[in-house]
Specification:
This protein has 16 helices and 12 strands. With about 400 residues, it is an alpha+beta fold.
């Protein structure tokens, strides 16, 4: 099929509901695809995506990563983030952030996550909106705990965060998103100044105090890092929770096996990451000309590296459109690979594992009302903005 007959753009409303048939066409007929509306190339085959993720010298993340429609002004909202840097600055910044985001600090959150999950499940009513009442609330609560945000500030924090996540620049100027970002930065700056003089046992204090070779993070880099955790932590965990809730409702036999054997929960999480990838893709910028599949992409061009398309590539995964908790998708790329592999992946997996364990125990036969559900329509992500849920006693 000629490329011109394939309709794909990351901001196309028709793509949000089910991009996977289009991804297959792209993999088979145009693995290097030019998305005219967003002025970006798109890579869809697993081998190409894998290679791009491991080659940061060619596929640069500098001032890139977040694909925006042409003319969007939301990109100006972001301060320096390590996901928008390349080595060596990226590596030094990541080493500093790692001092605040240690495995011990993440593991210590398990009890907090269990407590919040049990409260949220206990508050769910028949017909509740799983996306809004559970999946969106849990990650923000955990991020707030991780950063040490006081409980009385969390309602505002949540409102700003949700506005920033759901503002869709394809529908017009992202003024609400810009204002939400400004409010978050202003709040973080006040918080940051407080932690400089009154450090506590939280991640904010750890970021302020972290040093590598005598160097500390700048205020702008700390603010950018905090925003990165907010964006990535909310987007990945919230959408992963809604996607797996929907998928398991459609596969009750596999869900029952998980209820009988909780060891299968980790398998199901990895398969869900592959099967319905929360972050569909991230953007890179070419530092040199690249010819791939007889198509030449030029230095300076934008390239959208499609994780979700790669995760459904039959060249890497047999029967890729089948959800199978017995699969071992070691090469799924939902959290990226290489130097930019998601630093928050362990926390996302922990949250979903704790949430699924509780759901399988307390409402193991849940169903979702797809007729009244609503997909997320904000960029190249997959998830549910609204997902009504019911279950039998």
């Amino acid at each position: 099929m000629p490329q011109t007959q394939i309709r794909y753009d990351p901001w196309d409303e028709a793509i949000f509901d089910d991009p996977y048939p289009t991804y297959k066409l792209m993999r088979d007929e145009a693995p290097v695809f030019w998305a005219e509306a967003s002025q970006t190339w798109a890579l869809s085959r697993h081998a190409d995506v894998w290679a791009a993720l491991l080659d940061h010298e060619t596929y640069s993340s500098v001032d890139s990563v977040f694909p925006m429609p042409p003319g969007s002004n939301l990109d100006m909202a972001f301060m320096p983030m390590m996901v928008r840097m390349d080595p060596p600055r990226h590596d030094k910044l990541r080493a500093l952030v790692n001092k605040g985001f240690t495995a011990r600090r993440v593991a210590a959150l398990e009890g907090v996550i269990e407590e919040q999950v049990n409260v949220l499940i206990g508050d769910l009513q028949q017909g509740a909106d799983f996306a809004k009442d559970f999946a969106a609330v849990l990650p923000l609560g955990i991020i707030a705990d991780l950063l040490g945000i006081p409980k009385e500030d969390r309602p505002n924090f949540r409102d700003w965060s949700v506005t920033l996540m759901t503002d869709n620049p394809v529908l017009g100027p992202a003024e609400d998103g810009l204002m939400a970002a400004a409010n978050i930065y202003a709040y973080f700056m006040e918080f940051l100044n407080q932690r400089k003089t009154e450090p506590r046992e939280d991640m904010m204090s750890a970021l302020v105090q972290a040093e590598v070779d005598g160097e500390k993070l700048t205020d702008e880099e700390i603010l950018g890092t905090l925003m990165m955790f907010l964006l990535a932590g909310h987007e990945t965990s919230t959408n992963l929770l809604t996607n797996i809730a929907r998928t398991l409702a459609a596969h009750p036999d596999q869900r029952q096996r998980m209820a009988n054997d909780n060891a299968l929960i980790s398998h199901a999480i990895e398969e869900s990451l592959r099967y319905d990838t929360s972050v569909q893709g991230l953007q890179r910028r070419l530092t040199r000309d690249v010819t791939l599949h007889d198509v030449t992409m030029s230095k300076g061009d934008s390239v959208l590296v499609l994780y979700a398309a790669a995760n459904r590539d039959e060249r890497a995964f047999p029967n890729p459109d089948v959800f199978d908790i017995d699969r071992k998708p070691e090469k799924q790329v939902a959290f990226g690979r290489g130097v930019h592999a998601c630093i928050g992946a362990p926390l996302a997996r922990l949250q979903v594992r704790v949430a699924l364990t509780a759901m399988l125990e307390r409402l193991p036969n849940w169903e979702v009302d797809l007729a009244n559900a609503k997909r997320v329509h904000s960029g190249p992500v997959s998830g549910w903005e609204s997902l009504p849920i019911t279950w039998s006693a």
